[in-house]
Amino acid sequence: MTEPMINKLESAVQSLIEQNHQLKEQVRELQDKNENLQLEHSEKEERYNRQQQRIQEILAQLSDSAV
């Protein structure tokens, strides 16, 4: 293998290593974002359930007072 070919291969390998580091960083960022979105979704779901429960309680009170 000639010196220029070796240099090209080394350059290509270095480029791939850098791309790999960038992709790993992107994966970490997306994992963090996903975790935050899941937490946010869970909080909204809990709030929705509490609101639904409160609505049912109010409807029951209204029903009782209408009798």
Automatic annotation (TrEMBL):
<protein>
    <recommendedName>
        <fullName>DUF904 domain-containing protein</fullName>
    </recommendedName>
</protein>
<keyword id="KW-0175">Coiled coil</keyword>
<feature type="coiled-coil region">
    <location>
        <begin position="6"/>
        <end position="61"/>
    </location>
</feature>
